Amino acid sequence: MALLHLPLPAAELLLDPSFLSLVEAEHLLANLTAAVPWRHEPIRLFGREVMQPRLTAWYGDAGAAYAYSGLRLEPLPWLPELQLLRRQVEQATGTPFNSVLLNLYRSGQDSMGYHADDEPELGSEPVIASVTLGATRRFRLKPRPAAFAEATGLPAPLSLPLTSGSLLVMRGPTQRNWLHALPKTSQPVGPRLNLTFRWVRG
């Protein structure tokens, strides 16, 4: 299935719910969960240091370092599975990528708070290509009030159930106008691995 545009004001959001087959996604989830040297590190939020509620890893070309929330990541060399997936994502999106952030959500209690991928090294309108493996979780977007200050009202938030093997692409002004998150859930869910491909400027 090709990427489909989702209706979201002042944004460009695309989704392919079956980018990878369920068998491909399951195989990739098992291999990466075992092969990746996962890190559990503190980040700085609102002036204090807290542990990230998930495990992370950063892969990329040499020199593709990335910094967010007081954390600086130096890229690990590409694994063969990640190289192959990068080529598939590049072909689907028509966009080159030199790095990928892996987030492993071990259970429904692991999460990601509202934020925008708007660090300077990503550029003014970054393309973020997100592949989901494993458990279905709800991905949420909400408008940044300042971006719609001249509008008569804020657009409605969006909630997307991202399934295993799906590809979500955020590009254009999305990061400037919207925040996104992966909230906790009390529902019993298995692990979810999210891979966000991006281009980091040197």
From TrEMBL:
<keyword id="KW-0223">Dioxygenase</keyword>
<dbReference type="GO" id="GO:0016787">
    <property type="term" value="F:hydrolase activity"/>
</dbReference>
<dbReference type="GO" id="GO:0140097">
    <property type="term" value="F:catalytic activity, acting on DNA"/>
</dbReference>
<keyword id="KW-0408">Iron</keyword>
<dbReference type="GO" id="GO:0006307">
    <property type="term" value="P:DNA alkylation repair"/>
</dbReference>
<keyword id="KW-0227">DNA damage</keyword>
<dbReference type="GO" id="GO:0032451">
    <property type="term" value="F:demethylase activity"/>
</dbReference>
<dbReference type="Pfam" id="PF13532">
    <property type="entry name" value="2OG-FeII_Oxy_2"/>
</dbReference>
<keyword id="KW-0479">Metal-binding</keyword>
<dbReference type="GO" id="GO:0046872">
    <property type="term" value="F:metal ion binding"/>
</dbReference>
<feature type="domain" description="Fe2OG dioxygenase">
    <location>
        <begin position="96"/>
        <end position="201"/>
    </location>
</feature>
<dbReference type="InterPro" id="IPR027450">
    <property type="entry name" value="AlkB-like"/>
</dbReference>
<dbReference type="InterPro" id="IPR037151">
    <property type="entry name" value="AlkB-like_sf"/>
</dbReference>
<dbReference type="GO" id="GO:0051213">
    <property type="term" value="F:dioxygenase activity"/>
</dbReference>
<dbReference type="GO" id="GO:0016705">
    <property type="term" value="F:oxidoreductase activity, acting on paired donors, with incorporation or reduction of molecular oxygen"/>
</dbReference>
<keyword id="KW-0560">Oxidoreductase</keyword>
<dbReference type="InterPro" id="IPR032854">
    <property type="entry name" value="ALKBH3"/>
</dbReference>
<keyword id="KW-0460">Magnesium</keyword>
<keyword id="KW-0234">DNA repair</keyword>
<protein>
    <submittedName>
        <fullName>Alpha-ketoglutarate-dependent dioxygenase AlkB</fullName>
    </submittedName>
</protein>
<dbReference type="InterPro" id="IPR005123">
    <property type="entry name" value="Oxoglu/Fe-dep_dioxygenase_dom"/>
</dbReference>
